[in-house]
Design brief:
Blueprint (H helix, E strand, L loop, with lengths): L2 E6 L7 H16 L3 E6 L5 H12 L6 H25 L4 E4 L6 E3 L8 E4 L2 H8 L3 E5 L2 E4 L4 E3 L5 H12 L3 E6 L20 E3 H9 L7 H9 L4 E5 L7 E4 L6 H4 L6 E17 L4 H11 L7 E7 L4 E9 L3 H15 L3 E14 L8 H12 L6 E5 L2 E7 L3 H11 L17
Parallel strand pairs: 1-2, 1-9, 2-6, 3-6, 4-7, 9-11, 10-12
Antiparallel strand pairs: 4-5, 7-8, 11-12, 13-15, 13-16, 14-15, 16-18, 17-18
Helix pairs in contact: 1-3, 2-3, 5-7, 6-7, 9-10, 11-12
The structure holds aspartic acid and magnesium ion.
Amino acid sequence: MALLVMKFGGSSVTDASAMRRVAQRVAASHRCGNKVAVVVSAMGDTTDDLLDLANQIAPGPKPAREMDMLLSAGERISMALLAIAIQELGVPAKSYTGAQAGMRTDTSHGRARLLDVQPGRVRSTLDEGTVAIVAGFQGISTGDDITTLGRGGSDTTAVALAAALDADVCEIYTDVDGLYTADPRIVHNARQITRITIEETLEMAAHGAKILHLRAVEYARRFTVPLHVRSSFSDREGTHILVGRPLTEDTMEEPIISGVTHDTSLGKVTAVGIPDVPGAAASVIGAVAQAGVSIDMIVQNISTSDARTSDISFTIPEAEGPDAVAAVRALQATMGFDDVLYTSHIGKLSLVGAGMRSNPSVAAKLFESLASAGVNIEMISTSEIRISVICDQADVENAVRVVHTAFGLDAEEEAVVYGGTGR
Ligand code: ASP
Ligand code: MG
């Protein structure tokens, strides 16, 4: 007998029949003798629809407290319907809001962080043999107001609940069969990954893979929650994400490259002609960080040997471009640099694999394959288990396909995409 957390994303519960299908799965797991806690997202596009509705009423900024009240309703609808569907199958089930499930957060509406998880009611429900269903993406703040965890936050709810319950595994059900070596919507013969380390999963999630929410993966690593990503539309085994296990001989046998991810939502800021003195980078990057912009890749180069100036370029989410440019511009006069340039439509391709740690030929092969495809590399950054390149957004999809093939990742069969969103 195991204690499981099963998480179903919005694309797994789009309508009544999908809800019944999910209920069957939950009931089957319960009948096997497992204690089952379920975390569910809002049905289909409900969250977007609620946002649209609010925008029609107030096009400008809206009261954050009320927005959280509104958006948290999507998950409440799902949890109640799922509880009804499970009971209809003769299995006892009870639903709980995030607050009832003990999800205590800070007070930042719309992007609240979990501070404490006390799932006492969920635990006693499981102990009495009842399925507990918890609304994803929400909690209650230290000021007793309803909060939401940010878009895609139900993954984090699931992992946090699994950690607090000391669950054997957190199963993430989605609309594809697991993690893939590339986005199957772009690389049709992407290969499904059977098992992967949490470190690689973290790099993939941080660099564009959309299947798991980055915060949830970070949480899983921190609290060593084993994750199992699989489809709610098939019985395939899916992907097991290994946590708290150093690379051993048997995991070393895994392929050198685990996957190719991409991101097409970036912009690039360049401060041109910065005096080459200590503290220059600290001022520029510090100002951007101060403006609340998340910086991804940073490159500094000496523009000419005698001018004693350098350029600093960094990439950011495209949506945060204007804030980043404003923050750097504000420094221009005092620091005395020449110009601030901004490019939108920046793309990024990342190659991730624990096996590349000891394999220097990986970078060379990556650059060769990009060159053969005529892709111009603008920036490069690496970690121990990742190489990322920045290129034109228009080149990214082709680059992903070329690199995927070059590293021998193409599968024989086509990947199946059951739904539309990858959540
Ligand atoms: N329903 C929320 C969203 O669409 C949370 C989630 O799906 O994880 O962002
Ligand atoms: Mg959703």
